[in-house]
C-alpha cells in the first residue's frame, strides 16, 4: 500500500498539500471556537487559513516564511479595503478590477508575486462573502492573524516539507512506478488476443507516469541536493533507468508481433500491435522471461535495507549476465533481444541503487556484475557538475509580456463579469468574478480558457446537486458541517492536479455547507451560483478571444517550434559527441526537450478534448504529438549513449556519423521553419537511410543488441520519425507541389 500510494502521488505532494491545508483550517477553527467567536468569523477564519496555506508555493522554507510574513499585511489591507468599499458600489467595483489586474500582473515576479496577488484577491473576496463592515474589522483582523499563525504552525512545525525530503519521496515514487511498469510488461507476456490492446493501453499509461515522475525529480534536483555533482549523477541514473525500461517494453512488443514494432506504438493512443501474435505460454524461454521480469521488478522495488543477501545477488548476477550473452536461452532473435534488454535494465537498476542508496556488498558479484560496476564507476567519475550553456532568453516587454497580457484580459473579463453579475444578483455578483479570475490561472490560450471554464461549470453543477442533499442532511449542526468542509477541502487539494472538474465539485459542495452555516442557504442561492459561474466563464472566454488574443493555434505553433529546436539541439550535440566532438550536458538538454514537449502536450489539450467537434483535427494533433514523443525517446537514448562514449568499452567515436546525419538535422530545422512561417520555402530532403550510408566499421559490431549497434537503430528511427512529421505538418517534399501538403494537414493552424 505504501508503494501504491507513493506511485499514485509522487513525492506525496498532493497528500501533503491536502493535509497541511486541512490542519491549518482545523487549528484555526479550534482556536476561534475557544474564543467563542460567531459563526461568520469561523467561516472567515477557515477561508483565510486555506488561502494563506495553498497560496505559498516556494520550495525553500526561508522563502516560504518571508512570503507568509508579507502576506499578513497584504491580507489585512485587503480586508480593510473590502469592508470600506463594500457599500460603495462603483468605487468598490473599480478597485476590485484594479486589484485583479495587480494580482495577475504580480505573477511576473515569480512565486512570491503570485502568492501575494492571490492572497490579496482571495481575502478581498472573503470580505464580500461574509459581508464585512468597518464595525467588525478589529475582530476580522484578529481572525486573520490567528489563521496566518495556524498556517505557519501547520507548515513549519506539524507538517514540514523540505526540498531534500520531497526529493527523497520522489525517488521512492520513481522506483515504485518503475516496478509498476515492469509488472505491466509482465502482463503483456500472457495477454491473449482479446486483452492485448487493454494491456497495451496500460503499458502506455505506466510509461507516461514514469516519465512524469522523472520530470518532477528533474525539477527538484537543484533544491534537494547540496552537491551539483550528486544532482547530475542522480539525473543521469534516472534517465538511464527510464530509457532502459522503455526500451524493454518496445522489445517485448516486438517479440509478441510477427514484425518489428515501431516505437510509435508506445506513444500513439489507439495504436495496435502489428500482425498480432503471442508468445508460447509453456515455452521454456517464455517461462524464464516471465521469471526474470519478476526478478527485475524485485530489484527495482526492494528497499536498501532488504536488498542484501545471496538470493538477490544471484538474481542480479543472472540478469546482468544477459548483457554479456551469458546463458541466453534458445529462442527466436526477438525473444533473445528481450533478455538482452533485461540485462540493460538490470544494469540501470544497479546504477540507480548505487546512486540512491550508496555502496553495497560486492562479495557475491559475478564477473558480469563486476564489469557493470566498473563501467558505472567510470561513468560516475566522468560526471561533473556541468555548466550553464546558454544565456537567459530576452523576455518580451510591454503588452507582449504574458503576465501583462493576462492581467489586461482578466481585468476586462472581470469588468464584464461584474456588470453581468450585478444584473443577476446585487449581493453575490462576485461569484462571476471569481470564476473569470480562476479560468485565467495557469492558462495561456483561448482554447485552454474555454476548456477550463467548461470543466468548472460542469463541476459546479454537480457540486450544487451534492450541496442540496448535504444541506438537507446537515441542517444547522455547525461542527458536523465544518467537519464535512474539512473533508471536501482535503479532497479538493488531493484531486486538483488530476481533475479540475472534481476540484470544482468539492469546492461547490463545501460552499453549500458554508452557506448553510451562514444561514443564507437556499436552492435559489445554489442555482444562482451556477448562473454566475457560467457568466464568469463566458466573460473570461470573451475577454481572451477579443482582448490581445493568443489563439490556440498560435500558442501550439510557438511551442511546436520550441520542441523542434530542442530536438535539433539534442540530436546535433549527441551526433557531434558520437562523431568525436566535444562533450556537452546531453542529459540536461534531453530533459529540456522533455519539458518543452510536456508544455506542448498541455497546450493541445483543448484540441484533443473529448468534446471537440473537429475529430480529424484532434486525431492529427495526437498523431503529431505521438511522433514527437517517439523522436524524444530516440533523442534521449542517443544522448545517454553519447555520454557513455568516454568510459564504455563497446563504444567508439565514428566521424562519419556527422555527415550521415546532416540531412536529418536539416530536416528538423526545415520543419521548424515551416511551422514558424508557412510561407517559408523550406522543404525536407530525402535520400538513402543512415545505416546504408555507413559501411561496416567502428559502429557496427557482429553481436546484435550491443550498445554500439543501437546507435544506428536510434538514428534510423529518429530519421524516419522526423520524415513522418513532414506530412501532417504540410512540409513539402522534393518534387512535390509546395501547396500539396495542405490536403493532409497544411499549416499547423489546420493541424492544431
UniProtKB/TrEMBL annotation:
The UniProt entry, under Pfam families, shows:
FUSC_2 (PF13515)
Q: Which residues cross the membrane?
A: 12-33, 39-56, 65-83, 89-106, 113-133, 139-159, 430-450, 457-475, 481-498, 505-527, 533-550
Predominant cellular place of this UniProt entry's protein: membrane
Protein's cellular compartments: Cell membrane
Q: Known InterPro entries for this protein?
A: Memb_transporter_dom
The UniProt regions of compositional bias labelled Basic and acidic residues, in chain numbering, are 386-395
Q: Which UniProt keywords apply?
A: Cell membrane, Membrane, Transmembrane, Transmembrane helix
Q: How does it sit in the membrane?
A: Multi-pass membrane protein
Q: Where is this region: Disordered?
A: 358-400, 726-752
Assigned protein family? Belongs to the YccS/YhfK family.
Q: What is this protein called?
A: FUSC family protein
